[in-house]
Amino acid sequence: MTKDLDTFSRRALILNKLNFETSRSVFSLSNELKVSLATIRRDLNFLEKEGSLKRTHGGATLKNTAANQKFTTRENISKESKIQIAQKAIELVNSGNSIFINDGTTNYYFAKLLLNLKSNLTIITSGLNTASILSENNNFLCYLIGGQVKNLILATSGSHAENMIDNFNPDIAFISSDGFTAKEGLTFAYEGEANIAKRMIERSKKSVALITEEKLNVIENITSVKLKNIDILITSTKKNNILKPFKEMGIKVINSNRNINVNKNYNNIIKFNDKK
């Protein structure tokens, strides 16, 4: 059954096997998929370059990063910071706006606040859970861009998704990423998500990066968008030594830890949505 798989499907199956067994050898994958050892080595090298796995002696293992954790696990990491960032992002959205939102758990909380606090929006997203939340508001026109669905990330990517993005000209792109530095800008563990973010920002009038503190000064495998193409950074850190390089390069920095009193109301909205 597996011997007739095309390259794309075979590599997807390799990742699926790693999701269940953590590590696999070149020899075992070659036997199961009925292809040569050389073919498996090329597949593993490609997937490592993409950021999906880490090569080991004689095999491969999944990278131990947040990007390789299930969505339900990631959404609880730095949850309060993500809600605070979402709170500040809400202030940039006006009725009648069209916006891009890429996948990610920070944008998931952003979507939950949008659902209850804004109306008359056109929203284009690559996040499956984000689209599901936003579809509950009848005053939103919500588009889920089509493409390959990645199981762990619960997002769409690939050439079909990128081509669909080109049909829109939104006011603002709200982008979260796996890493963010003054040198490399937005970086991602996976090439597909990096390309989606890049295309979204290219098509938008304004770009906003939503970044929790632990992702600042982190460089992931794939550079998506350089800092010069980012207009605003909303982040949860208060550390001036970390924020200084971004400010010096002309980025407007918004600290999400301010206006703490408002957070209680927003937390209630998040909790209300969680009960639905």
What does this structure look like?
The chain is α/β, with parallel strands linked by helices and 276 residues long. The chain folds into two domains: 7-64, Arc Repressor Mutant, subunit A, CATH 1.10.10.10; 72-274, Rossmann fold, CATH 3.40.50.1360. It has eleven helices and 15 strands. The strands form four sheets. It has a seven-stranded parallel beta sheet, sandwiched between helices. It has a three-stranded antiparallel beta sheet with strand order 1-3-2. A three-stranded antiparallel beta sheet has the order 10-11-13, covered by helices on one side. 41% of the residues are buried.
> Number of helix segments?
11
The rounded distance between the terminal residues' Cα atoms is 42 Å
Report mean pLDDT, rounded to a whole number: 86
Do you know the CATH architecture of the largest domain?
3-Layer(aba) Sandwich
H/E series, N to C?
A: HEHHEEHHEHEHEEEHEEEHEEEHEH
Strand percentage lies at 15-25%
CATH uppermost class of the largest domain:
Alpha Beta
Strand arrangement within the widest β-sheet reads: 6-5-4-9-12-14-15
Poorly predicted spans: none
Provide the helix percentage. 40-55%
Question: How many strands?
Answer: 15
Major sheet size, sense and barrel closure: 7 strands, parallel
**Class of secondary structure makeup:** alpha/beta
